[in-house]
Amino acid sequence: MFRVRALATSLLIIALFTVSCGGDGSVVTDTEGGNPDFPKVIRMIESTTNFTEDDVKSIGWKAQKDFLLDYPGATTAKWGFLNAAEVGVLIYPSADDAKTLGVAAAEAQTFHNELGEAPGDGTMDRTSCQSAGWQSAVQEISNGSSKVSASYLEPEKGGDIPPSQKMPCPVRVPTYNDYTVIGNLVMMCEGDDGKPLEPSTNCKELEKWLTK
Q1: Which of 128, 153, 171, 188 has the fewest other C-beta atoms within 10 Å?
Q2: 171 or 104: which carries more pLDDT confidence?
Q3: Cα-flanking dihedrals φ and ψ of residue 49, to 5°?
Q4: Total structural domains in the chain?
Q5: Angstrom distance (rounded) from CA 85 to CA 66
Q6: Which domain holds residue 74?
Q7: What is the distance between the alpha carbons of residues 9 and 42, in angstroms, rounded to a whole number?
Q8: H helices of the chain, where?
Q9: CA nearest neighbour of 180 among 49, 48, 46
């Protein structure tokens, strides 16, 4: 499975260098997912700007924590929130690194299996718990007055959540569905309103917000 996904990612990277994109610079693909019911939108935007973490924060991104997995070549690898939706940010030394190493990383983190679920092989950093009706189950888990996210690959063995408040996870899905590459920056986006199959305004509007 890993070799098949690695080959598919390599072919996708080559295709992204040669594809003629639509008017908004996006490519709709289900290359990695293997199921047309779970497409994702990829936007490849040419830019000569080397963006920094501060540039992303300037548009409202609130960084939370570093990713748990290793992201070769990335100088920044963190997740946080923008407009009430989660986004992952990868920053590389160059645009070429973002188009290669960054695309490979984003493909792995937005992969859906044939059922739309996250892979269980330890290659996905952020996942979300969904009910059978594809509604977020995270909201059912509370710790006092705050909501507790169990999105980590290894969510610290439940953290401080009392056993009586721990809920089962019927379906674990990738937190991120779409991603945008602009210059040396890769942004991986949760769908609007925290819904896994909704389009992402954050990924769609990233270029406008960063360059206005």
Answers
A1: 153
A2: 104
A3: -80, 135
A4: 1
A5: 17
A6: 2-211
A7: 13
A8: 2-18, 53-57, 95-97, 103-109, 201-211
A9: 46
